[in-house]
Amino acid sequence: MGTVNRISNLDAVRGVAVLGILVVNALAYSWPMDAMLAMQKLPMAVDGVLQGNDRIGAWAIEALFADKFRTLFCLLFGVSIYLVGGERNDRERGKKLLRRLGWLAVFGLIHGLAFWFGDILMLYAWTGLFVMLMRGLSGKMLLIVGGSITAALIFLQASLGLLMPVMPPEIAAAFEGHAEVTTAGILADVVKVQSGYGAAMLANLVSWAIVQGMSLTIMAPAVFALMVLGMGLFKVGFFHGQLSNKIYAAIIAVGLSALALKGWAAWVEGGVAPELLPSRGMNMVGSSLAVPISLAYAAIIIKLPALFAWARPVGQMAFTTYLTQTLIMTTLFYMPWGPKLYGQMGPAALWGVIASVWVVQILFAHLWLKAYRWGPFEWVWRSLTEGRKLSLSRAAA
């Protein structure tokens, strides 16, 4: 999209989504990958239980943010595939979309190998190649395809959660993701990263290979479904605010109910050692409901546009915001030119960093777009896609 005829709701949802993604990624910037699987194995936990503000901070990350904002971003990426590529019979726009996805993969490769293992751009580029084949379908058909796959995955994950109480403890722990994670292992990985830039980059490479292997296989079907679903929602008018108020109210009611379940289960799980399963598997059930929760978040933003107007410039610069989050956070935590805070901040302290980055990025987006048509990385991406240097200044345009 250019500087005119933008859909303000899309920008607002995208802005909130990219800022929300930082909340979950902050742990991966500041601790080894295993810490994301089991925050209760962080060294500040006592007998597998985080205390005080750390428990609250970890609960907020898991209950309110984990998977929800990544889901939102996947939905919106499906929209962007349609906005750039048009209908499937539009061959010129289809070629442009292919170039755009190709350059996105290049950005992702550099981002993941040179800076941070948690890159998601490669996954988006790879999955986008398949999603672009679907863009000629009607909105209804896209909803059926994307919704059916998503519903099947929700059913599978929720079923596993409901079965966890009758599973052998070691199998249930494996499904929760914390079976092999130990505090000693996390601390050993912290020491490796702190030993020098070379060791940090080697650890990053190993984690990147694991993440990309999972992304291109296990995660791809879910991301494909979400992108198709997002494209369908766009075609039927969801992001334009064109559906009936009853539909938006129903989406919000279902999503907030799911959020309440996840919030309760995550809090209960956080009060004891994770292997005890105090929520009887309902924490995994709540995790499976990230999509309806994300749709409720989007519906709230769409129906309260004035309240989220501040997020629109951030959404217009989402690519720049995402990449500069990495530049800021890796500088803080393990790059040689930064203070090297890796492995030192618990979940509560991380919230201070997150809030500070949010303020900086919101202000930067508002100020930058007063003078320029796109964010700096958006401009580079667009210029590469077009094969020529585009005019960035608003005055020149």
From TrEMBL:
InterPro entries: Bact_Transport_Assoc (IPR052529), DUF418 (IPR007349)
Transmembrane regions: 12-31, 69-85, 142-164, 205-234, 246-267, 287-310, 317-337, 349-369
Protein name, UniProt field: DUF418 domain-containing protein
Record flagged with keyword Aminoacyl-tRNA synthetase: no
Pfam families, per the entry: DUF418
Signal peptide: none
Keyword Transmembrane carried by entry: yes
Key words of the record: Membrane, Transmembrane, Transmembrane helix
Residue ranges of every copy of the DUF418 domain listed in the record: 233-387
